[in-house]
Design brief:
It contains 33 helices and 8 strands. The protein has a 5-stranded antiparallel sheet, covered by helices on one side. The protein has a 3-stranded antiparallel sheet with strand order 5-7-6, sandwiched between helices. It has about 675 residues and is mainly alpha-helical. The radius of gyration is 28 Å and the shape is flat. Helix 4 (about 150-165) packs antiparallel against helix 6 (about 185-195) and helix 22 (about 470-475) runs parallel beside helix 24 (about 510-525).
Length: about 675
C-alpha cells in the first residue's frame, strides 16, 4: 500500500519514504512506526502495540519507543510541539492526525531520484506542515487549533469560519441562539469582534486559550492594560499556567495599588486570587480560608458597590477554605447562598460550578455515591458551557471518587474524557494532576507500564507543584518498596494539606500510611526496619484520623505488636466503613487479615472479607489486593478448590503485578494430596 499526504509519499511494501519525489533517509524502524500509525489512523495506537509493530517483541523501554517516534516526526517534518501528523495521547499512545490518501497497489508512487539530483538540496526536517491533499479519500479526525500567537480579532474570524465550514449555514442561526448567553463558540468569536476586549479575554481564559489571552493582554490599549480587570486577568493567567511565583509577585504589587486607592472591591478580588493561589500550592485549609474570609467581609461592607456575582465568587472561595478545614456545614451555607445569588442574575454556568462545590462537600462527608452522580451531572453541564478547564477538574474528582469506590474501569473512563480535554487545553495547569490520576487508575488495573509512562510524562512538565502520593503507590504495586519509601517520605515532608477527609491519601496521614506500607514490604524482603522521621514518629504515636490509625496499626504489626495493631486496624476499618471508603477499607483489611492468620484465627479473617464484600461484592472480588487476601485465607484453610479459584483471580486481576514471593512460595509448596 502507498500513502500520500502533502508532498510526502510512503511506499509500505518497498519501505520507501519520499518528499517531493526525493528519498528521505530513515531507518526501517522509523518507517514501520510511520506506517503503523498511518494504517491505524482511525484509532489511538497504544504503546505496547506500537512497540510490537516495530520490534516484534515487547522487551523494549518506553524511552526507546519515544526516540523512534521523535525520529519519525523529524523525517516527516513534524515536531513534538506542533504534532500536526503524529499526536501524542499521554498515557495511551499515538494517533495519526494529518490528512492523507491511500493509493492502490497498481498506482504509480512517487519515485526517488538519484543522489546526483537536486534532491540533495531538499530540506527534509522542515517544521512546516504540508497542505492537505484536495478531497482526500481518508482523513483522521479533525483537530481544530488556533495559530500559536494569534491576534484575538484574527482568532475570532477563524473561529467563525470554522463554525460555518463545520456545521453549514443552516445551523448558524441555531448556534447564535445557543451562544447568546456568552458561553458558546459563536458567542466567543462575536465578543472578540466586539468592543469588549476584557470580556473577550475572559472568554478565552475560560476556554483555556492561554496564548490568545497572553497576546490579547499585550495588545490592549495602555489605559485598559493598566486597569484593574486586565491586571486580574493577567494574574489569573499565571495561576492557570502554573506560574505561581510570578502570580504571587504580581499579587503583591497590585495589592499595594488597591490599598492605595481604597477600593474595597479590587482588594477583595485580589484576596480571592490569593486564596486560589494558596489552594493551588496545597496550603492548609486555614491559609486558604483566611484571605477568602477577608474578601467576603470587604464585599459585605461595600454593600451595593459589590456586584452579586463578585460576592457569590467570594462566598464560593470561602466555602472552599471551610471545606478544606473540615467545616462542612458552614461551607454548605456559603455555597447555597452563592448558588442563590447566581440564580438571581440568571448565571446557570456559575451555578453549575457551585453545584460541583456542593458535591465535593458531600464527598468529604462520606456521601460518595450521591456525590459522584451529582459531579457527573455538573461535568456534563460544564461541557455544555464549553468550560473545559473546570470540566477537567470535575472529571478528575469523579475519577478520585470512583477509585475510592474501587470502580477502577469507571475511573479510567472518566480519565479518558479528561485526557481528551487536555488535547484541547494543552497548557492547562490540570495536566499534571490529570496525568497522575490516570496513572493511578492504570496502576489499580495492573497496567504498570502505561502508568509508569504517564508518571514520567507528568514529571517532565515544568510545574512548580510536585506530588509523590501516586508515585509512591505505583512503586509499591510495581514491587519497588525502596522507591515507594522515598516518595512517601518526600510527600510527608512537603505536604501541607491538613483536611482529615481528603481523597486518595493526599495528606500527611496518607503519606505516613504509604511509608509504613513500603517499610513493611522492605522488611518482607529481609531488609531491616527503616527509621521514620521525628515528625512521622509523632504522628504514628498519636493518630488523629482513621488514616493515621491505619498507618499506626501497620507500623505496630511491623514491630511485632499484633494485639495492639489489631485494635488500631479494626477502629480504622470501622471509620472507613462508615464513610463507604472501600479503597481505604482494603488498606486496613490487608494487615488485619495477616494479624488474624498469624494467630490462626481463620474465621475472624473471613469475617473481615465478608465486611468488605458487604458494600459491593463484585467490585471487591475484582480487586487485586482482595484477591491476594482471599488466596492467603484459602491457603490457611487448606481449601484446595478455593486455593485454585483465588490463585486464578490473582493472576487475572494482577496483570503486570507480581504476587509477593512468600505467597507464591506458599502456593507452590502447598500439599495438594
Amino acid at each position: 500500500m502507498h500513502y500520500r499526504w502533502g508532498d510526502f509519499s510512503l511506499d509500505r511494501k518497498g519501505s520507501l519514504l519520499t518528499l517531493g519525489g526525493c528519498q528521505v533517509e530513515a531507518s526501517r524502524r522509523v518507517l514501520d512506526c510511520i506506517a503503523h500509525v498511518v494504517e491505524h489512523h482511525d484509532r489511538i495506537v497504544g504503546y505496547d502495540e506500537l512497540i510490537f509493530a516495530i520490534w516484534r517483541h515487547h522487551d523494549v523501554s518506553n524511552h526507546q519507543l519515544s526516540q523512534i517516534v521523535l525520529q519519525a516526526r523529524r523525517a516527516i517534518g513534524d515536531d513534538g510541539q506542533a504534532q500536526h501528523s503524529i499526536r501524542t495521547i499521554p498515557g495511551i499512545g499515538y494517533r495519526w492526525v494529518a490528512t492523507f490518501r491511500p493509493l492502490e497497489e497498481h498506482a504509480e508512487p512517487a519515485t526517488a531520484t538519484s543522489p546526483a539530483s537536486s534532491c540533495e538540496e531538499t530540506p527534509v526536517a522542515s517544521s512546516v506542515a504540508p497542505p492537505p491533499a484536495p478531497e482526500p479519500a481518508h482523513s483522521a479526525p479533525a483537530y481544530v487549533s488556533l495559530p500559536k500567537k494569534p491576534r484575538l480579532r484574527a482568532a475570532a474570524i477563524l473561529s467563525l469560519c470554522l463554525v460555518v465550514l463545520a456545521v453549514g449555514p443552516q445551523r448558524i442561526e441555531s448556534l447564535a441562539s445557543n451562544g447568546s448567553n456568552g458561553t458558546g463558540l459563536f458567542s466567543a468569536a462575536d465578543r472578540a469582534l466586539s468592543s469588549d476586549p476584557i470580556g473577550s479575554l475572559r472568554e478565552a481564559l475560560l476556554m483555556g486559550r492561554f496564548e490568545d489571552v497572553r497576546e490579547g493582554l499585550a495588545t490592549l490599549p495602555p489605559d485598559i492594560a493598566d486597569g484593574m480587570e486586565a491586571r486580574l486577568i493577567e494574574i489569573e493567567l499565571d495561576i492557570r499556567r502554573g506560574r505561581y511565583a510570578r502570580a504571587d509577585e504580581k499579587l503583591s504589587i497590585q495589592t499595594a495599588r488597591a490599598e492605595a486607592t481604597g477600593d474595597p472591591v479590587w482588594r477583595a478580588r485580589l484576596l480571592l486570587q490569593q486564596s486560589e493561589l494558596k489552594n493551588r500550592l496545597q496550603a492548609s485549609g486555614a491559609d486558604i480560608l483566611a484571605p477568602a474570609q477577608s474578601a467576603v467581609e470587604l464585599l459585605e461592607s461595600a454593600g451595593a458597590q459589590a456586584a452579586p456575582e463578585i460576592l457569590a465568587d467570594a462566598l464560593s472561595r470561602r466555602a472552599n477554605g471551610l471545606n478544606l478545614s473540615d467545616r462542612f456545614e458552614e461551607a454548605q451555607r456559603d455555597l447555597i447562598r452563592a448558588r442563590d445569588l447566581y440564580q438571581s442574575i440568571g448565571d446557570e454556568h456559575r451555578g453549575a460550578v457551585v453545584r460541583g462545590s456542593l458535591a465535593r462537600v458531600r464527598m468529604r462527608t462520606g456521601d460518595l455515591s450521591d456525590a459522584l452522580e451529582e459531579m457527573r451531572a455538573v461535568a456534563d453541564d460544564l461541557a455544555r458551557h464549553d468550560d473545559r478547564i473546570r470540566e477537567i477538574f470535575a472529571r478528575n474528582t469523579m475519577t478520585k471518587i470512583q477509585i475510592e469506590l474501587l470502580r477502577w474501569e469507571d475511573a479510567l473512563d472518566s480519565s479518558d474524557r479528561s485526557m481528551a480535554l487536555l488535547q484541547e487545553v494543552r497548557e492547562s495547569e490540570r495536566r499534571y494532576p490529570t496525568l497522575q490520576l490516570r496513572a493511578f487508575a492504570l496502576t489499580g488495573l495492573g497496567r504498570l507500564r502505561e502508568a509508569a509512562a504517564l508518571l514520567e510524562d507528568a514529571e517532565s512538565l515544568k510545574s512548580e507543584r510536585r506530588d509523590f502520593i501516586i508515585p509512591a503507590i505505583h512503586h509499591l504495586e510495581a514491587g519497588d518498596p525502596t522507591a515507594s519509601l522515598e516518595a512517601a517520605a518526600r510527600e510527608f515532608e512537603s505536604s501541607r494539606i491538613d483536611t482529615r477527609s481528603n481523597l486518595l491519601l493526599e495528606n500527611k496521614d496518607g503519606a505516613a500510611l504509604l511509608w509504613v506500607s513500603a517499610a513493611r514490604a522492605l522488611v518482607a524482603t529481609g531488609q531491616p526496619i527503616p527509621t521514620p522521621s521525628e515528625a512521622m514518629t509523632q504522628l504514628l504515636n498519636d493518630p488523629k484520623t482513621a488514616t493515621a490509625r491505619c498507618a499506626r496499626g501497620r507500623w505496630l504489626f511491623v514491630q511485632g505488636r499484633s494485639a495492639d495493631a489489631e485494635i488500631e486496624l479494626r477502629q480504622a476499618m470501622a471509620e472507613f466503613d462508615a464513610h463507604n471508603q472501600l479503597y481505604r477499607m482494603v488498606l486496613a483489611a490487608e494487615p488485619l487479615i495477616d494479624v488474624l492468620l498469624q494467630r490462626g484465627e481463620t474465621a475472624s479473617a473471613r469475617d473481615v472479607l465478608i465486611a468488605l464484600r458487604a458494600h459491593a461484592p463484585q467490585r471487591v472480588d475484582d480487586d487485586y489486593r482482595v484477591a491476594l487476601m482471599q488466596l492467603k485465607l484459602a491457603l490457611a484453610e487448606k481449601d484446595e478448590f478455593m486455593i485454585e479459584a483465588a490463585y486464578r483471580n490473582v493472576a487475572i486481576s494482577g496483570r503486570e503485578r507480581r504476587p509477593p514471593d512468600e505467597l507464591l512460595s506458599a502456593y507452590t509448596k502447598h500439599d495438594w494430596n
